[in-house]
Design brief:
The chain is an alpha/beta fold. It has four helices and eight strands; from the N terminus they run βαββββαβαβαβ. Strands 5-2-1-6-7-8 form a six-stranded parallel sheet. Bound molecules: pyrazine-2-carboxylic acid and zinc ion (ZN).
């Protein structure tokens, strides 16, 4: 069997019901993820980790509403409610997430001027987070992705992982979508195009 790792994307309070950028049913996948994690020897967690006044927050763009888009130096950027601010309870992992054997926590989105949906590259699609190199050095070839949100951080992480040459599978029952303007359906189409398995 090829060496594989489970990557759990952004299972944080702010993305769960009661959080500032709650994904519908986000908390419901926690037991599913815990079960999957028990089946994987190698587990990696990602954590959305923004400074206060991060440029992806609508609050930093006078007159702009959350869930609208603006042009940034690196391209279009969706604006979000303030979320996952460094050190806050909202940025903490869901209390029921039970993955004591996780080997790495990779944080992203900590640069004020640029967002990072993908766990591999920031939204300029150029600046690496280091995760690709880490996984390669560890010898992993297959990656299973789960977590939040299906159509943003899971999507862009899966696509970048493919581009870096990993075999990628996303476990649908262990993700939930934000679904902005058909983004969940677009994600499924994109997965087919990129050779990402949706199981
Ligand atoms: C995410 C929007 C903003 C995600 C993170 O984890 O999918 N979405 N920041
Ligand atoms: Zn974010």
């Amino acid at each position: 069997m090829k060496p594989s790792a489970l990557i759990i994307i952004d299972m944080q309070n702010d993305f769960c019901p009661g959080g500032s950028l709650a994904v519908k049913g986000g908390d419901r996948i926690v037991p599913v993820i815990n079960e999957l994690a028990r089946e994987h020897a190698h587990v990696i967690l990602t954590q959305d980790w923004h400074p206060p006044q991060h440029s992806s927050f609508a609050s930093q763009h006078p007159g702009a509403a959350p869930f609208t888009q603006v042009q940034m130096a690196y391209g279009p950027q969706t604006l979000w409610p303030d979320h996952c601010v460094i050190g806050t309870q909202g940025a903490a992992f869901h209390a029921a997430l039970d993955v004591p054997h996780a080997e790495l926590i990779i944080r992203k989105g900590f640069r004020k001027a640029i967002d990072s949906y993908s766990a591999f590259f920031e939204n300029d699609h150029l600046t690496p987070t280091g995760l690709g190199g880490y996984l390669r050095e560890r010898g992993f070839e297959r990656l299973r992705l789960v977590g939040l949100a299906f159509d943003f951080c899971v999507r862009y992480s899966a696509e970048d992982a493919r581009k870096l040459g990993f075999e990628v599978e996303v476990v649908e029952a262990a993700t939930r979508a934000i679904d902005l303007d058909g983004s969940a359906e677009d994600t499924k189409k994109s997965f087919v195009k990129h050779g990402i398995r949706l199981s």
